[in-house]
């Protein structure tokens, strides 16, 4: 199941790690209501500024 989610994200041009992190955070925190879950699908997902993956310090 996990690989299906990752591949679906990749096929939709979405970074799987950023997408899964953001989606799980939104669901657990309650920021996304049950009626809005379709907005979290990879083809509808829009990252928040907080969802950006931080750059690694050199």
UniProtKB/TrEMBL annotation:
Every Transposase IS66 C-terminal domain range: 4-43
InterPro entries linked: IS66_C
UniProt-listed Pfam families: DDE_Tnp_IS66_C
Protein name per the record: IS66 C-terminal element
Species whose genome carries this gene: Belnapia rosea
């Amino acid at each position: 199941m996990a690989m299906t989610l990752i591949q679906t994200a990749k096929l939709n041009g979405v970074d799987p790690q950023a997408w899964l992190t953001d989606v799980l955070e939104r669901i657990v925190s309650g920021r996304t209501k049950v009626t809005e879950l379709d907005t979290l699908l990879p083809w509808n997902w829009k990252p928040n500024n907080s969802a950006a993956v931080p750059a690694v310090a050199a």
